[in-house]
Write the structure tokens for this entry.
Amino acid sequence: MSGTNSQDRLAINQDRLWVSLMALAEVGSYIDGRSGLRGVNRLALTDAEAEGRRLVIRWMREAGLRVRVDEFGNVYGRREGLLADAPPVLVGSHIDSVATAGAFDGCLGVLGGIEMARILNEHKVLTDHPIEVAFFTEEEGVRFGTDMLGSAVAAGRIPLDEALLRADVTGITVGAELERLGFRGTAPARLAAPHAYVECHIEQGPVLSAAGRELGVVTGVQAISWQELTLFGKSAHAGTTPMELRHDAGLAAAMITLKLHEMVDSGKYGDLRVTVGRNDTYPNLINIVPARVVCTVDLRNPSETYMQAAEEELRRYLEVVTAKTGVQITPKQTAKTPPVEFHDDVENVISEEIDTVGLSQMRLLSGAGHDAGEITALCPTAMVFVPGEYDGISHNPREYSTPEACANGINILTAVVRRLAAKDSL
Ligand code: GLV
Ligand code: MN
Ligand code: MN
């Protein structure tokens, strides 16, 4: 594999990267009522996210990237290489956010890719392979129910027609929002295999900072299983209805949450993580037995075997809940991805480049889902993690990574991309 040497190592412009991260964080910003902190609410394909898209596309164009938007609203900015027909080295992530986000999740990988393009331009660096910077539609899955949706369509795991029909809780579809916002592009949604894919992302967890490491080389992503459960009970007066006559959907939801935590405590499901993050109760009034609950179950596990065992145990338990409470339960699987292993060669290039600049590092599995987990089906893929502060809190306005840490990650991304974009790499 050909490589760069330390003499032509480039340093990205840390301040410029930071200014762009903070500017994008203004789009969809809000003030958290309790903490007074500024957060980001840029759910996929909302007006705020469309404004973010337009800003990032402007920055792509200003960095000389040729922009194309695909049929699913995934956006790619291309910098040509010397080998015109060679597949690109792709970098990217997402700019959609959860409703209570910080400035870094996803945005670092996208804005870092644009900063990389700027610095390559300023140093007149030509690469053999083209380079593309992407941001994918609905990575978070919070609005339309399925995470990594855009990259899953790009990689061919989820058919385009099916993905366009995914709807939010009000029934509005992805397809309708893409049309309304002008982001239903014409480039094919199925992505031709890139030469390689590298994603830089904030870790979103405590591992790197606890270990005192400056960067992480990500070895893969754990399995994810999402279900939406609709529990059909029976509305009744809280004071007059004897307990034995009730079909309480709230009780059923509580039983399921407890059971999931018991499954974790049992130790029978490996390193299982469980979250019931959404609990919509109807009619949600103090003196009425809940008639209906829609709740979500998020399961994570590094092992597919343990994941499947946990899913099966939950499935059986739903029957127990129905038998005990009379509450009927309709489960819907909204997302499911097996564990993903990244590519050794790409991991090794990342690790070597970190060693070269003398930063500390460790290898780690990603706890969160990422677009890289989908693109790995197309080409050699790996990720660089930068540590987050405050125990790595994320999906929260407190999410924070220092300007230096962000620049460390994007400097490594730049060095790795240059190596991978050389003619004989991989
Ligand atoms: C993506 O942010 C996830 O939920 O892992
Ligand atoms: Mn992310
Ligand atoms: Mn996220």
The two ends are 6 Å apart (CA to CA). The chain has twelve helices and 18 strands. The domain at 6-221+339-420 is CATH 3.40.630.10 (Aminopeptidase). Residues 304 and 401 are 31 Å apart (CA to CA).
